[in-house]
Amino acid sequence: MKNGQKIPTEGEWVQWAEDRLLGQHVSLVRYLDNEESEQMGWTERPLCIQFSDGSIIFAQCDPEGNAAGTIIGFGSTENLPDDQYPEEWGFPPLGLK
After folding, report:
1. Measuring CA to CA, which of 3, 15, 39, 70 is 20 to 30 A from 64?
2. Which residues contact 72 (CB under 8 A, 6 or more apart)?
3. What's the CA angle centered on 25, arms 20 and 27, to 5 degrees?
4. How far out from the chain centre does Cα 93 lie?
5. Cβ neighbours of residue 8 under 8 Å, at least 6 residues apart?
6. What string of DSSP letters covers 35-52?
7. pLDDT digits (tens, 9 = 90+) for 38-50
8. Furthest CA-CA distance within the chain
């Protein structure tokens, strides 16, 4: 326990994420601007996904937010032959402009 608080279970984290992300629609994909990154204390700008309600998500290197992070993803496996792997995506942070 931290500060007397119960540590959430995986299921509780999933529920928390679902409550905020399911049903959202991506309205914009961009990199954080210099001001946003500098407010985080960073010298790099991570890719940012903005939803139609104005909320955003982006990667940071660790839970404390010590630096920007890379978003990694994989393409769909639907209709892929068994001997092929899905396309891997990587969106690294960029330096300040």
Report:
1. 15
2. 88, 89, 90, 91
3. 120
4. 12
5. 16
6. HHHHHTT-SEE-EEEEET
7. 999 999 999 999 9
8. 51
- pLDDT tens digits for range 67-76: 999 999 999 8
Q: 32, exposed or middle or buried, with CB in 10 Å at 0-12, 13-18, 19+?
A: buried
In 10 A of CB 49, how many CB atoms?
17
Tokens 């500060």, residue located: 3
Which residues are registered as beta bridge partners of 31?
47
d(CA 12, CA 63): 17
Quote the tokens at residue 2.
């931290």
Distance CA 97, CA 95 (A): 6
